[in-house]
Design goal:
With 460 residues, this protein is α/β, with parallel strands linked by helices. It has 17 helices and 15 strands. It has helices spanning 16-19, 24-28, 63-82, 98-114, 118-132, 136-148, 164-172, 204-213, 242-248, 271-287, 308-313, 341-350, 362-368, 390-394, 417-424, 431-440, 448-459, and strands at 4-10, 32-38, 51-53, 152-155, 176-180, 198-201, 222-224, 256-261, 292-297, 318-320, 325-327, 335-337, 355-357, 373-376, 409-411. It comes from Flavobacterium indicum (strain DSM 17447 / CIP 109464 / GPTSA100-9).
């Protein structure tokens, strides 16, 4: 019997880890003829995957400014409906350089003020769709689908505007589509750019969020699958013996290591100062008889030099174990993971005692390995940005999902590090961390790819 054909649409590289570097393909190919519709610079044929490359897709000249207007109008709608100023904190300052940018900003301001209600937002979506249908890119997508005749299209990320045209072409050819909500914090940020027949979400919690922010989507369009993001953590074939991992990364086998997980410069503009605070605490603990080191895993999209001085000052304490990502452009979405990084990340967790960071999802990665997570909860003196604060970060909507503040260890002052590290060196993570993980993503967490394919099978 001929297998049904499924296109996996990769509009950008952020879906690579979940859907190209996981067991997702191996599970699906048993039942389906799978092709990656690939808009990344990677050749997935090198992994023996069938792929169809995009040929320099170009969206309509007005689409991007309409997308920005859609996002701003959605945030304004949420702010008005919920009477909650947190939605303003998701806005990024627009560039005011040059006449072209100033004109774009004026249009976005008009769209924000004129379309910030449910009816207006749907009008903006329809306008974007109308413009995209006029492009050569849309016509090329439609021609590809007419030639290949897939039975289903699964989009790996709901955010990229480049995904609109291929999904519209599928709709116009009566090919059913679904998109995956990429990250646990995406929906409050108004990042839903594409429209599909179905939506795959991490959890019941995310399903409720989706219906709350997008009342145009019905409950029966949403399928709870979990995320492949954590599947590799359970793959023992990726585990390295301590000696092997330590030798590869120039770590001292006599030391116990704490992981410091870095943030991007927008989330934490003073991250290198926090790293220095932790390094000072580790040095003080070693003077008291401990034998500790500090693994520094920088944020994968941060290739800056801002940590260099601290790494040099504390080279006897800090060992960088860098993510295996590559930079192919200037934007954050042009920094892409390689297949090697799954192993780097997993063994960094496996061979660390605990993790310290400012508000990242690493709490869940470490919970898989039953290890504690510290959340930094103080502002440093002489901040790089005057009005930035940890309070702003922890007020984001996705942190309100935390069932109990005991899910993490809160570091309220740099003077707390020594005591808290000593108390947690030989401890497991809290039960509340597991409860939070279970709330955020469907369990068991290592079966997400199976659930996604089961959902696709049901829909087909």
């Amino acid at each position: 019997m001929k297998k049904k054909k499924v296109f996996v649409l990769l509009p950008d590289g952020v879906g690579l880890r979940n859907f190209a570097y996981s067991k997702f393909y191996e599970i699906g190919k048993q039942f389906y003829d799978i092709s990656f519709w690939n808009n990344t610079p990677f050749n997935l044929s090198d992994l023996n995957y069938k792929e169809i490359k995009f040929n320099k897709p170009v969206i309509h000249s007005l689409t991007d400014v309409l997308k920005n207007g859609l996002i701003q109008a959605s945030l304004t709608k949420n702010k008005k409906e919920e009477q909650d100023a947190v939605y303003d904190t998701y806005r990024f300052p627009a560039s005011k350089k040059g006449l072209k940018n100033r004109i774009k900003n004026s249009i976005v301001t008009f769209l924000n003020s004129s379309f910030s209600n449910q009816k207006g937002i749907l009008k903006l979506r329809n306008l974007i769709n109308s413009l995209e249908r006029k492009t050569t890119y849309y016509k090329n997508c439609k021609a590809t689908l007419e030639k290949e005749k897939p039975d289903f299209i699964f989009c790996t990320n709901q955010r990229p505007i480049i995904a609109v045209a291929p999904l519209l072409a599928a709709k116009d050819l009566n090919i059913h589509t679904a998109t995956f909500i990429f990250s646990w914090d995406n929906l409050p940020k108004a990042t839903m750019v594409v429209q599909t027949d179905y939506y795959f979400v991490w959890s019941e919690h995310m399903k409720n969020e989706l219906m709350h922010y997008h009342p145009e989507i019905n409950s029966n369009q949403i399928l709870i699958t979990g995320t492949p993001q954590f599947e590799a953590h359970f793959d023992q074939n990726l585990y390295q013996e301590k000696e092997v991992f330590f030798n590869e990364n120039k770590l001292d086998s006599n030391k116990k290591y704490i992981c410091y997980s870095g943030d991007d410069i927008t989330t934490c503009p003073d991250d290198e100062k926090y790293l220095r605070d932790v390094a000072l605490a580790v040095k003080a603990l070693n003077k008291k008889g401990h034998n500790l080191g500090l693994i520094f895993r920088r944020c994968p999209v941060d290739f800056s030099t801002r940590y260099d001085a601290v790494l040099q000052e504390f080279k006897d304490v800090i060992v960088p174990v860098n993510p295996a990502w590559i930079k192919i452009g200037e934007g954050w979405n042009t920094v892409l993971p390689t297949i090697k990084d799954n192993q780097v990340l997993i063994n960094t967790i496996k061979h660390s005692e605990l993790v310290i960071n400012l508000g990242s999802s690493m709490v869940f990665d470490f919970a898989v390995f039953n290890k504690p997570c510290f959340y930094i909860n103080y502002d440093v003196p002489n901040k790089l940005i005057f009005d930035w604060s940890v309070k702003k970060i922890y007020n984001f909507v996705h942190f309100r999902s935390m069932p109990n503040k005991n899910a993490v260890v809160w570091v309220n002052s740099p003077s707390n590090y020594e005591k808290l590290i000593e108390e947690n060196l030989n401890k497991n993570c809290s039960e509340d961390a597991f409860k939070w993980f279970e709330k955020i993503t469907e369990q068991p967490a290592d079966k997400a790819s199976e659930r996604i394919w089961n959902a696709i099978n049901t829909l087909i």
